[in-house]
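User: I'm curious whether this sequence folds into something compact or stays loose and floppy. Could you predict its structure so I can see for myself?
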Amino acid sequence: MKIHELSIKGFGKWRGADFRFAPGLNVFAAPNEAGKSTLLQAIFASLYGLKRDYVRSARYLPEYDKYFPWHSGSYELSVLYEVDGRRYRLHRRLEKEREQAQVFLDPDWTEVTNLYQEDRRKERNFLELHLGLTRSLFTDLTWIRRSPLEASEYLLPSLFGTSEADPAVNRMLAALDKELTLIGKKERAENTLLGKAGALVAQREQELAEAEAGWAAVQTLTQQIAHWEKAKQEMERTRERMRQRLLVLQKEEQAWQRRWQDSYREPDEEGWPQWEATARTEEERALHRQVQSVLAAQGDWGEAEQDKGNADVPESDALEKLEAAYRQALELRKERDEYKEQADRLAEAALRTAPSRVGRGKEKRTGKVRLWWTSCLASLVVAALFLLAGNAPVGWIAAGISAACALAAAAANRGQTRQRENRAAGNEHEWQAWQDKAARCDQELQQLLQKWNAADWDAFLIMREERKNRVQDRQASLAAQEWKRQEERTSLIKEWGEALRVLLEQEKAVREQERTTFEREAKELDQELLDIRERIARASGELGQQDEVSLAKVRGDYEEAVERLRQLQLNREALSLARDTLQQTLHEWNKELSPAINRIASDIMAQMTGGKYEDVRLDPQEKFGIKVWDKPHQRIVEHDFCSSGTQDQLYFAQRLALHRHVSQQTEPLPLFLDDHFVHYDPERLERALHTVMRLAEEYQIFLFTCTDRESKLLQSLLQGSDRHCLHSLRETVSSERQI
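Assistant: Here's the prediction. I'll summarize afterward.
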């Protein structure tokens, strides 16, 4: 088998990556975290998928989630491989529950997917059909690891060829195992023929017992049916009486709900008789009567207090009249103060303005007189001048003007004097009017105070406050007494409601207990009715079918089932004997097989250790466990007790021995080494690489390493070779590559 190409659309860190492999040695040297192990798992996943072997349902390996694409994209792979001279291109989509695989012939790309039959998991295992190897067997044989084989129990049949053992033996052994599995080991198993036959025998035995018991019971069914019918009628009458009683309880429950809600409200005068009439117990009736008597006593006390309050009405009326007189007195005092204020304001204005007005009048009067007298003198001077000048007419005119100015000055002086006297007389009259109004208000106020026997205004105020306080104290006392009475009444009603609800809860508990008892009895009665009806129906059916189902037929079915079980037990014993015989034969073949495998492993171990360890044994019956002959110490050593480097060499020899033996029966299989030589010292590594190069001439090998030791040692051998190749890993970031 050769793997030519691998295209990764999405697998772990790889995305849009293409790889082409040489037919011989392929070396991948890169540091850790470069994707070497991911590439190795991608090769296995492209060939076999990521489902487990040897399970019926589709179960996925842990690697499915581990290598889910890191980047957005499809979980897809495509591989080009060659088997038996034919090339196939296998394309896989690894989506869970929807995994798809298609296979094409290369180079014409003819799809041949449907030529491969699906297994019980609805899967087409192309590589398993091509090589005869499951995924577990393929990785066990081709992947050289420092761990035991994973599917050693399934590996043994794949090691035999036509030259060593007849392949029909394996097929016969598989067929015997299959038949034994179908028959089963235990009679109580559910999915085996033996278990089903045992269950059928048990069923037939039970049916036979029931038929015999039924046949015996039929003799008495006729008498029992009549008895059951009579009992059924009596039960139906009892059930009807229970139903009527339950209806009554339901109505009582509704009435109880109303009474429970009314217990939170204070009853009116008509409510108390109703409560007493609907009381269910004498205790409840006594409670209602007691509360009514206390409320009646509180009502009498309230009426007495009301009468006392009515006796205080005259005092309240007198206080109202006094308040009216107080308001009237306030109005009088307010008017008096306003009148006095007006008179005082007028007197103050007269006193403040009188001097200035006299001064201004005098100045005004002197100015006018001076004007007229100045005009008079000027006219006289002019007249004199004109008379002296001999102009007598003009002079006499000027003298007349002088006389007229003198008369005007005298008239103006007399008018101003009369005006001032008239104004002073008006102000005095207005001041006197305001004084009269204020005196009248004082007179009315004094009369009002004398009416209430008050010496003065302060005494009137003291009397008013005393009467007002007496009335307010009495009213406050009455209000406190009324509040106390209401509090007592509210507390009494609350206590009544609480006591009533206690009685109602007791009543409800009794009724609920009665209802529960009736319902339980009704349910039991219904079940009894159902049972008796079923018994009647079953008995009637048995009587009607007695002629159709005979006891002889049931007994015949039981004997037939017993015979079938006995035959299966004989077959199982025969198959077990045949299988044991074939396994013994196969064990003899193993003795012939072991030397061939041990010889290959010993040759490889001798080459890699320089002859230090040249005798190796693999035990097929112990999962191909490894033992080595320690020649210097003359002892047999199991691989677990060897050094790490020696253990790696033993695992290398074990895998190569099994790989070479299986490859001889089929065709050369590839080899995979993932950092397998990490514990090798330089000398061991050099010998191991020489062995690898010899193997690479016949097999395709994939060597993954995180160091440059292998590439340096192999560089001279790989240069210029078309069969071998040194690869450089790098992550392809393109997301548009199509596989």
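Summary: Residues 161-167, 356-364, 731-739 have pLDDT under 50 and may be disordered. Residues 263-311+462-517 form one domain.
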